Amino acid sequence: MTTLPGRQRRFVLGLAVVAVPLVLALLGPLFVGDPGPRATSFTLGGDHWLGTDFVGRDVWQQVLLGGRTVVVTALAATALAYLVAVPVALISALTRLRWLEELLMRPLDVLLAVPSLLLILLVASVLSPGAAGLALLVALVNVPDAARIVRAAAGEAAARPAVEALRMQGETWWRIAVGYVGRSALRTLAADAGIRLTGVLYLVSTAAFLGVGVTPDAADWAVMVDRNRTGLLVQPWAVVVPALLIVALTMGTNLLFDAALEKKGRRP
Amino acid sequence: MSRDPVAEIRDLRVEIDGRAIVDGVDLRVLPGKVTALVGASGSGKTTTGLALLGEYPPGARVTGGIRRTGEGPVGYVPQHPAAVLNPARRVGALLHDIARPQVRHLPRAERREAARQLVLHALADAQLPDGEPLLRRHPHQLSGGQQQRVVLAQALLLGARVIVADEPTTGQDALTKSRIVEQLEQVAARGIAVVLLSHDLDVVRALADEVLVMRAGRVVESGPVERLWTAPRHEWTRRLLDEQRAAPRDGASVDAGQPVLEVRDLTAVHDRGTVVLRAPHLTLHRGECLAVVGRSGSGKTTLARCLAGLHRDHDGEILLDGTPLPRSLRHRDRSRLAAVQYVFQDARAAFDEHRPVLHQVARTAVRLRGTGEREATDEALATLHRLGLAADLAHRRPGELSGGELQRAALARALLARPRVLICDEVTSGLDTVTRRGILDVLAGLAGEGDGLSLVLITHDLDTARLADRIAVLDAGELVEQGPAQRILTEPQHPFTVSLMRTTERLETGTRR
C-alpha cells in the first residue's frame, strides 16, 4: 500500500483544476484589452473568440473580468467565518463554565435557524451592500455551522487525558487550545473548509444572480450564467464557460483538501 | 484429540519500511483450545493476532499465509476497548445492532423481546450478569473492565468461531480476572478457539493449552503450557517466567511527623449527584508509599483524581502540609500544581501525539519550575535515562513508542515537577511481566527520593500493592480497610479484602476452577 504517488497525483490534479479559475480570476482583469464596440447579442465566432453575450459584449473579456468578485468574495467570506468560528469553538470546548459555553454557542443556534439566503436578502434590501458587505454577510451566516463543527471536533480532543496532562504541567491556555486541541481538530476543520468554500461560492453566486453585491449587468461569472441563460441554445459559451470555471474552482479546492488530508494512516 | 485447525498462520512475515515486525511465525488455532501468545510489549503479539482477522498495519508488506476454515467471523477484543465502542451510542444500542439481524426469522412481534434476550444472555456470558442498567449507559460511563466485557459480549453475539483476546485481563482486578479466566474457559469449552494475547502469566498459566513465546517478532519457543513452565528451553522464556516478587518495603524512610497529604470527610459525586466515593480519613506521610486497592469501578481512580484536582465535584478537605488544596487544579498555583502530580493509566492517550516525547517531558520543568528550555531538556534526558528510556527513543513521537516506554516517559514527565506526592493510576496494568517488573522497580526506587517523595499507587493488583508501606482497600466507593501493608496482606480483616486475597492466591498457583 504505497499511498504517496497516488496522493501526489491527486495534489497535482487538484492544483491543475483549481489553477485555471484562480489564475483567470486574479490575473484576468490585467489582460483585458479595449472593450471595443458592442456587437449583436448572442453571436458566435467572428471577431469574438467565445462569441458575444446578451448585450453584445465579448464573452472572453467578460470571463477575464468576472472572476475576481466571485473568487475573492468567497475566499474572504470563508476565511472570515473561520476567524470567528474557531476561537468561539475552542473557548467553548475548553471552558468548564457552563454559562460561558451557552453564551457563546446559543446565539449561533438562533442564527442557524434563519435560512441564510433569506437573511442575506433581508439585510441587502435594507443596506444594499457592495462586494465587501456581501463577504461579511456570507461569513456571518456561515459562522454557526463552522463553529458547531469545530466545537464538536475540539470537544472530543478536549476530553482526552492528554489535555488533563497538559493542565497538570501548568501549560498555558493558548498552548492547550491551539497547540493541542486546535491541532487535533485540524483534520475535521480542513475537511469542513473544503465543503464550506463550495457552499460559500454558491451562496455568493446565488446572491449575485439575485443582484446582491453586484449590478445586474456586471462582469461576474455568476451573473453571466444567469443573464445569458436566455440565449443558451443560440450561444452556449456565455453560460458554459463561466459555469465550468465555478465548478472547477469548487472541485479543485475539494481535491486539494482531500489530498492534503490523506495522510499515512495511523498505527492501529 | 487432533481436530483440524479453524485457522492457521504459516510463515507470516509483516514488514513496515523494511523492518520486520513479525517474522516467520507459525500458528495453529484449534477449536476448543486456548492458544496463548506471550511476550513483552512490541514483540509482535498484536500484529499476529490481528493477522488472524486479516488486518495489517497500514503500509505493511505481508508474506506468508493465513488460512481460515469454517465459517463465522473472527472476534477481536482489543486492549483498549473504548476505541471500538461508538462513544455516541448507548451500550444497549451497540449490542442490539448485532442481535437484530439474528432474530429476523421470527415474527415481527417477537423480535424485540428475542433480541433483548440474546443481548442479556451475551452480557451474562461476558460476566456482566446484572447488565440491564448498563444497557442505558454510554461507553464512557463504564469502567475499563466493563467496556472490555461489553466488547466480549459483542463478539459472542456475533457467534465468532475464533476469538482473539488482546490482553483481556489487563486493567482488571483479581476477582474479575478469575471470572474472565472462567469465562474464556467456558467459551473454549463450547468449541470456540481462543487466541489469548497476554503478558499476564498467571492468567496464561491458568487458561492456555498451547503457549507461544514471542520476542522481537519471532517465536522463540512454543509448547504445552505445563512443559513450558516446568522446563523452559529458551533463555528468554526463563527470564519472562522469572517472577521474582518485590519484597515488602521496610518503611525505614517513612517520617511519622505531619502528613504531607491528608484527606478529611471526602465525598465525591458524579454529575447527577450519585455518590461514588466516601473516604472519611486518609493520610500520606513523607516518603511513604500508599497503595489504594479495589476492583474496577470501586472509586479508586476517583479518589486519585480528587487528590490531583482533576475531579472537582467533591465535599470535604484535601490538605497539603496542613493547608487545604483548591479543588480544581485550575485554581492551584504553580508550586501546588507541582507538589501533587498524577500519572495516567493510559500513557498513550495522555501524550500529545504530534510532539516528540522529550519536548513534552521537558515542558513540566519549564512551566512548573521556571527552568530554561535547555536545562529542562537536559534534565528530561537525564530523568528519562534514569527510568530506562534511551535518548533516541525520547526524540520520537508517542506513536513510535511502546506502552511500557511511554509509561516511563509519563513518570519522567511528572517527576520533572519535583513533586511531593506522585499519584500513579494503574500505571503497570497495560504492561507485560518484564516491563511491569521494570516499572515497579523504578517506582520502588522513587519513594523517599529527593525531598521525601510520597507515592500513591492506585491498583487492582496485589502484586503491585506489595510495594507499598500501607494499603487502603476500597469497595463500591467505601473505604473498607486501611493499615500497614504487611498486616493487610497477611491478616486482612474485612470480608472483601479476604476474598480479594484468596482469589489472587488461587490465580497465582495456577489452579483451575
TrEMBL record, chain A:
<keyword id="KW-0472">Membrane</keyword>
<keyword id="KW-0812">Transmembrane</keyword>
<feature type="transmembrane region" description="Helical">
    <location>
        <begin position="234"/>
        <end position="257"/>
    </location>
</feature>
<feature type="transmembrane region" description="Helical">
    <location>
        <begin position="193"/>
        <end position="214"/>
    </location>
</feature>
<feature type="domain" description="ABC transmembrane type-1">
    <location>
        <begin position="67"/>
        <end position="257"/>
    </location>
</feature>
<dbReference type="Pfam" id="PF00528">
    <property type="entry name" value="BPD_transp_1"/>
</dbReference>
<feature type="transmembrane region" description="Helical">
    <location>
        <begin position="12"/>
        <end position="32"/>
    </location>
</feature>
<keyword id="KW-1003">Cell membrane</keyword>
<dbReference type="GO" id="GO:0005886">
    <property type="term" value="C:plasma membrane"/>
</dbReference>
<protein>
    <submittedName>
        <fullName>ABC transporter permease</fullName>
    </submittedName>
</protein>
<dbReference type="GO" id="GO:0055085">
    <property type="term" value="P:transmembrane transport"/>
</dbReference>
<comment type="similarity">
    <text>Belongs to the binding-protein-dependent transport system permease family.</text>
</comment>
<dbReference type="InterPro" id="IPR050366">
    <property type="entry name" value="BP-dependent_transpt_permease"/>
</dbReference>
<dbReference type="InterPro" id="IPR000515">
    <property type="entry name" value="MetI-like"/>
</dbReference>
<dbReference type="InterPro" id="IPR035906">
    <property type="entry name" value="MetI-like_sf"/>
</dbReference>
<feature type="transmembrane region" description="Helical">
    <location>
        <begin position="130"/>
        <end position="150"/>
    </location>
</feature>
<keyword id="KW-1133">Transmembrane helix</keyword>
<keyword id="KW-0813">Transport</keyword>
<feature type="transmembrane region" description="Helical">
    <location>
        <begin position="70"/>
        <end position="91"/>
    </location>
</feature>
Automatic annotation (TrEMBL), chain B:
<dbReference type="InterPro" id="IPR003593">
    <property type="entry name" value="AAA+_ATPase"/>
</dbReference>
<dbReference type="InterPro" id="IPR050319">
    <property type="entry name" value="ABC_transp_ATP-bind"/>
</dbReference>
<dbReference type="GO" id="GO:0015833">
    <property type="term" value="P:peptide transport"/>
</dbReference>
<feature type="domain" description="ABC transporter">
    <location>
        <begin position="261"/>
        <end position="501"/>
    </location>
</feature>
<dbReference type="InterPro" id="IPR003439">
    <property type="entry name" value="ABC_transporter-like_ATP-bd"/>
</dbReference>
<dbReference type="GO" id="GO:0055085">
    <property type="term" value="P:transmembrane transport"/>
</dbReference>
<dbReference type="Pfam" id="PF00005">
    <property type="entry name" value="ABC_tran"/>
</dbReference>
<dbReference type="InterPro" id="IPR017871">
    <property type="entry name" value="ABC_transporter-like_CS"/>
</dbReference>
<dbReference type="GO" id="GO:0016887">
    <property type="term" value="F:ATP hydrolysis activity"/>
</dbReference>
<dbReference type="Pfam" id="PF08352">
    <property type="entry name" value="oligo_HPY"/>
</dbReference>
<feature type="domain" description="ABC transporter">
    <location>
        <begin position="7"/>
        <end position="241"/>
    </location>
</feature>
<dbReference type="InterPro" id="IPR013563">
    <property type="entry name" value="Oligopep_ABC_C"/>
</dbReference>
<comment type="similarity">
    <text>Belongs to the ABC transporter superfamily.</text>
</comment>
<keyword id="KW-0813">Transport</keyword>
<keyword id="KW-0547">Nucleotide-binding</keyword>
<dbReference type="GO" id="GO:0005524">
    <property type="term" value="F:ATP binding"/>
</dbReference>
<protein>
    <submittedName>
        <fullName>Peptide ABC transporter ATPase</fullName>
    </submittedName>
</protein>
<keyword id="KW-0067">ATP-binding</keyword>
<dbReference type="InterPro" id="IPR027417">
    <property type="entry name" value="P-loop_NTPase"/>
</dbReference>
